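Good morning C.,

I know you're traveling, so I'll keep this short. The sequence:
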Amino acid sequence: MFKATILKIAAHIALLSSSIYASDLFHSSIPVIDMNLYESPSTKEEFIQKFADALHDIGFCAIVNTGMDHQVLNEAYDMSIQFFKSSLEKKLEIHDPKVNGQRGFIFSENAQGFKATDLKEFIHIGYESNLWPSWINIQTPFENLLQHLDIHSQKLQTALSLFMGQDENFLFEMTKKGDSVLRALYYPQTSIKDRIWAAEHTDIDLFTILPMATEEGLQVLYNGQWLDVQVPENCFIINCGDMLENMSNGYFKSSVHRVISKGNNKERFSIVYFVHPRDEDQLDPLSYCVEMTGGVARFPTANRLEMLAHRLVEIGMASEELKHYDARSGYMDRIADLVNNENAAPAVTKTYNIWKSSQR
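The tokens, ready to paste straight into the viewer:
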């Protein structure tokens, strides 16, 4: 069973010729940008502009010609599938409720503003403080993939930093010792069409890299309609997160997205990389971006820990200690000030309204 699944994954990520991307043989539902534009000095600015335009308009894009090492990705998927198809007793060896869902095995979570939990399981791996099972070696392939995706993310961080009027190392100085997280996910099979695997949500990070998934189901909310994310197979899907939206004063769009089943009794595996700064890094709206978006700050001043802690409280993954930190951080006071002064962006107002409802 594992071998058949891995063969299917290999087929999914087989290289396509670059000429296909420029033709009408494949129609992508989100912008597709060629990484080769970044690599050439004469077209680097073109890549930066296209990347920024995509995150501004829809918050999603696909990056082709990434140079991804497919063996590294395949090995991580192989171990991921074996882990999730094992017994609950084995998986619970790396479940620790005291770590706020930031490491090890997690049963599920609920999306911001939702009480029902998603239909999924996942594991979190970072650069330190990881929880590894004794019965299977997932450490080597996941650490290899983490490092591989981190190298690719640095180029995207440079592009974003330059577009926001900063030094090219601006974001990398935050993330090189940050708490970026690799998440491997399992969505169980279901015969119910449009069954929600993961309810609509935004990501709380700077941006997310999705190298691939074994089945369809990812959708993004665009102009009030759910759009199936269809992309070339040899690509990364990139989506903007809340922290980057906050820093850009809303210029970059942290798009609402979800994962639904096609109702064909197929299970789904995916691995995503959440790019995070350090806890103490300030994510305030940058003055350059405030001027670019009308001259008024519409997002709060906040550091990474304040934003993350509040989201973990919202989705039911926070420990009592983290709940106390969130309550006294002042983050919601700053959001309330923006709302009361009628300066808050819609995403900020949404956070405020969810918080107010929880206080009743």
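Safe travels,
E.
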